[in-house]
Every structure is written in C-alpha cells, then in structure tokens.
Amino acid sequence: MIGRVSIKISNQRNSYKFTLNRNITILRGDSGTGKTTLYDMIRDYNNLGRESGVKISGGNIVTLEGRNWEDELDKLSKKIVVIDEGSKFVFSKKFANKVKGCDNYFLIITRSYLSQLPYSVDEIYHIKGTGKNKEFERVYTDIDKFYDNPNPNRFPFMPDIIITEDSKSGYEFFLDTVKNTNIKCEAAGGKLPLYYIQPDIKGKIMMQIAHIKLDN
Q: CA torsion, points 42, 46, 51, 57, in degrees to nearest 10?
C-alpha cells in the first residue's frame, strides 16, 4: 500500500474517522477512551460481516491476534492490519521483520514504546471525542517532539538534563531519544528534592518529566 488512506468505521453507537499516512500508525490513550471499542467493532465486522451492524469504508481492514499471528500475517497483502494492546508479539524482532517485508498498513494500539519498529512521531495518535463521533488526533506537537530531531538548531529549547519520574519505560524512552545528543537523562525513581539526583543542577536548563504512562 502507498499513500494516505481515509477510513470510517461506524455502528449505531459509535463512529470513527481517521487517516493513515504511513505504513505504521500508533494509537495510544488511557482506558475508556474508545480504543478497545474500535478494535472490537473491526473484529466483529471481520467475523460477522453486515450482521455485526458495523459499516467500514475506505479500506480492507482486518484484526491480527493470537498464537498464529505469523501464519495469518503471511496470508495478508495490501490490508490494514489492526493489533490490540496485549498482543506481545509486537515487541518481537520477528514481527518487526515481517512489517518491513510486507505491503500492509498497520494500526497498533499500545501505550508502550516500540523501539524495534520504524514509525514516525507524527503518526502517534489518541482518540478525540467523547460522544458518538470520534477521530484521531496527533499526540505530539512540534514542541513536544523536539527531542526526536538531532539538529539542536531546531530545538525550541535545549535542556542540559531530562529527569523522569519513573525509572522504567518512561526513562528508557527518553534515554533512547536523546542518545545522539548532549542531553543527559536521569531517573528520579520517586526521589525528591531533585538536587539529590543532580546536585550540580544550578545554572543548568532542566526538564522534568512527570506521570509518564508508556507501558501497558
């Protein structure tokens, strides 16, 4: 598949509109925002067709899950493959190689950072809307994604130190994104005040990242 694909998925209670611009799109968000509902609607349509009460337009969409994901993926071509969070195979190198070697688009529902997949920060979304009509909205603005650009002249500001509240997925995410820069990344691990972690912070530009939710 090549180019943008505009999708509409609806039933009597919910309607989702979104556009996929690249082969990998990430859908994030807290519980209760509609991610699982969207996945269930697509799966019901795959299993029951029109009897599900779901209408899909704009592309051929299928869900991928379970132990036989590899065999099922090998059978797919030029499809939009939707994967729900909880599918552990998305973290594997085998899955990453399958993605690179096929002509499908992937919509992956996850709150985790998938370092093995080459997706763009521009293609990370959450669901916007609390009523029937919902759409995808980009998670990161130009300022939010400054750390993804290795050119310091394009940074809106240049911190010396990034301190994350947690020491797990959030810390690992920022540690990876600044690895080609001179920015230092430290994990607070709940320790306060901050000079316990960085006693020489005076005169430095510090960015503190709190309440990170990247893991399932």
A: 60
Q: Tell me the backbone φ, ψ of residue 74, rounded to 5 degrees.
A: -60, -25
Give the model confidence (pLDDT) of 152-201 as tens digits. Answer: 555 556 678 888 776 777 778 778 777 777 888 888 765 554 444 444 55
CB 183 within 8 A of CB 139: no
Taking a C-beta distance cutoff of 8 angstroms, is the pair 196, 151 a contact? no
DSSP 53: T
71-80: b or e for each residue (b if 16 or more CB lie within 10 Å)? eebeebeebb
CA 126, CA 26: separation in Å to the nearest integer? 8
pTM here? 0.68
**Nearest one of 129, 147, 130, 128 to 138, comparing CA atoms:** 128
Average pLDDT, the chain: 82
Joined together, the tokens standing for residue 49 give 């067709």
Q: For residue 137, give the nearest of 145, 129, 147 by alpha carbon.
A: 129
Q: Whose structure tokens read 């399958």?
A: 98
| H helix or E strand, kind and range, residue 175 | helix 169-177
Let me know how many helices (H) and strands (E) the chain has, helices first. 4, 12
Degrees, nearest 5: CA angle 133-37-78: 90
